[in-house]
UniProtKB/TrEMBL annotation:
Its cofactor is thiamine diphosphate; Mg(2+); Mn(2+). Coiled coil: none annotated. It catalyses: isochorismate + 2-oxoglutarate + H(+) = 5-enolpyruvoyl-6-hydroxy-2-succinyl-cyclohex-3-ene-1-carboxylate + CO2. It comes from Accumulibacter regalis. Residues 566-585 are annotated as: Disordered. It comes from the Bacteria. This is 2-succinyl-5-enolpyruvyl-6-hydroxy-3-cyclohexene-1-carboxylate synthase. The gene is menD. Belongs to the TPP enzyme family. MenD subfamily. NCBIfam families: menD. The lineage of its organism: Bacteria, Pseudomonadati, Pseudomonadota, Betaproteobacteria, Candidatus Accumulibacter.
Length: 585
């Protein structure tokens, strides 16, 4: 095609058909980073009112922002950027989406094939850019005058479907355009695109194998066992289903905070949330020897629970996976049920297994009560992260969202969150468990409503430019500043002379001033009481606030170590050496 105006008009019409098809397939959120080669697609999206467009300059931050949107909504979110190095900046979030099973649609604009490999500026071979971290990758042909709208409708429907089932995750669509990207002259609305029938896609509910359920129910009937619920985006009815199953078996449920089982109106009578305390005791580990373990969701976060699962390895493990992934890093499973987790609970419940011996759950009830009392004493202390977390959760209204950063915050949340009937919703990036993109993810979650982000100082600095997108969001970012990578202070590297330079890495950045430079409120608190008062004011004021809470690292480390020593102490007052020297994974 030699007519420049016609080429630009073709690019825009082609883009409009694709965007219309994505809207028809159910896409409602796009995160756009400005650029030239993506211009026809960007314009088509911006003129599609059903799709909410968020414009973020930094592609790395934009990708984590889209990840947060997809997490909180439970639906795919799309990304759009220009060609060159721009899509490569998505890679960390793509890895997280892959490992965490979050649906993302990656729309990268590209240079035409005749430029790739010939030294043309800003031209990168983007085909297969994300390797095995995407569920599918498509490179449709360049727009031509005789393009088929029906194909684009099917491509849009298929790409979104691929991101959702059978294993949720990112899908990459690489879209090349020739110049000129748009027609000359003013760009008024160019009219409705060619209409195609809506393509409806239904994802199945995976039901467990009846024979395997019958066999499993017979084997666990009357036996001592434990249900372990790791972090996952469970179906809405899972909490009721797993609680009912635990009631039938009379098994305890060891529920991690990101399972979202600790808070809510469901039956929590068999819930254990202080296992990270009582499983440090040698006497408890010796007595708590289940014959069966039923695991849902991701593999546990805390080393204590991981070590306990390894210690009771003769116990048979039934692992329930809602997709094709094997969550078995210890290679200990005996039964893999690839099915909807609620359906598994319902099927096992219907098989009417007998409950465990009466003394079994009593052991966990007593251990939980003792651990709760110990944690309660530490939750009243000053200059202690566990006390801050508990107090923040007490202040959150029902239904509030909390994003928890990695390293120390997620482990303190696990140990000190407690449990309550008030519903709260917890999020975290535990796929790759990195500190990158945490603020961006939290801001994406805040697009659905008020959110609190709880992160460490290095995590905040690592993603500081995300605050450019904080304006207008209802979010309080609570930064626990303990002077660097405090988590490493619990590991053997703390004794090395190079510890401070290469692991602790204390920073000198003024986080409050940085927040204000992005046009949001910045506050600093030097004590727990001051921090909570400032937090209350920030929540009542609304909008975006970064609250930096200064924590004395050495005092905090000492209190954590004292807590774990008490947690690990048996009746004879002696503690496990491992629990004293390396309490964190």
């Amino acid at each position: 095609m030699n007519d420049p105006h016609a080429t630009g008009l073709l690019n825009l019409r082609w883009s409009q058909v694709l965007v219309d098809a994505l809207a028809a397939a159910g896409l409602r959120e796009l995160v756009l980073s400005p650029g030239s080669r993506s211009t026809p697609l960007a314009l088509a999206f911006l003129r599609r009112p059903e799709i909410r467009c968020h414009v973020l300059l930094d592609e790395r931050s934009a990708a984590f922002f889209a990840l947060g949107i997809a997490r909180v909504s439970g639906r795919p979110a799309a990304l759009l950027c220009t060609s060159g190095s721009a899509p490569a900046n998505w890679f960390p979030a793509v890895i997280e989406a892959d490992l965490a099973g979050v649906s993302l649609l990656l729309l990268s604009a590209a240079r035409p094939p005749e430029l790739t490999g010939w030294g043309a500026n800003q031209t990168v071979d983007q085909h297969g850019l994300f390797g095995a971290h995407v569920r599918a990758m498509y490179s449709p042909a360049l727009p031509t005058a005789d393009f088929a709208p029906a194909y684009l409708h099917r491509l849009a429907a298929r790409a979104l479907a691929d991101s959702c089932w059978p294993s949720p995750g990112p899908v990459h669509v690489n879209l090349a355009f020739r110049e000129p990207l748009l027609p000359d002259g003013e760009l008024a609305e160019i009219g409705a695109a060619d209409c195609c029938p809506v393509i409806r896609v239904a994802h199945p509910r995976l039901l467990p194998d009846k024979r395997l359920i019958a066999d499993s129910a017979a084997e666990i009937s009357g036996r001592p066992g434990v249900i372990v619920c790791g972090g996952a985006d469970y179906p809405p009815d899972f909490a009721e289903g797993v609680a009912a199953l635990a009631g039938r078996l009379d098994w305890p449920i060891l529920a991690e905070p990101l399972s979202n089982l600790r808070f809510g109106g469901h039956d929590r009578s068999r819930l254990c949330v202080y296992y990270d305390v009582f499983l440090r005791r040698r006497s408890m580990v010796a007595l708590a020897r289940p014959e069966w373990i039923l695991r849902f969701g991701g593999f546990p976060v805390t080393r204590t629970l991981q070590d306990w699962l390894r210690a009771v390895a003769p116990a048979r493990q039934i692992v329930v996976s809602a997709d094709s992934r094997w969550r078995d890093p210890q290679h200990a499973l005996g039964v893999l049920l690839q099915a909807d987790p609620t359906a598994v609970c319902e099927a096992l419940l219907a098989a009417a297994p007998q409950c465990a011996p009466a003394h079994w759950r009593v052991l966990f009830v007593q251990a939980e009560a003792q651990a709760e009392a110990l944690a309660g004493r530490y939750r009243c202390r000053d200059n202690f992260e566990g006390a801050l977390i508990a107090a923040l959760l007490d202040r959150l209204p029902a239904g509030h969202r909390l994003f928890c950063g990695n390293s120390m915050p997620i482990r303190d949340l696990d140990a000190f969150s407690g449990s309550a009937a008030k519903p709260l919703r917890f999020f975290g990036n535990r796929g790759a468990s990195g500190i990158d993109g945490n603020l961006s993810t939290a801001l994406g979650i805040a697009t659905e409503g008020p959110c609190v982000a709880l992160v460490g100082d290095l995590t905040a600095q690592h993603d500081l430019t995300a605050l450019a997108a904080a304006g207008g969001r209802d979010i309080v970012v609570v930064v626990i500043n303990n002077g660097g990578g405090g988590i490493f202070g619990y590991l053997p590297v703390a004794a090395l002379p190079e510890f401070e330079r290469a692991w602790l890495t204390p920073q000198r950045i003024d986080l409050v001033a940085a927040a204000r430079s992005f046009g949001i409120a910045g506050e600093r608190a030097g004590s727990l009481a001051e921090g909570l008062a400032t937090f209350d004011n920030a929540r009542q004021r609304g909008g975006a606030t970064l609250l930096e809470v200064i924590v004395d690292r050495q005092a905090s480390t000492a209190q954590h170590q004292a807590f774990w020593r008490e947690a690990a102490a048996d009746d004879d007052g002696k503690s496990s050496a491992a629990s004293q020297t390396q309490p964190w994974s």
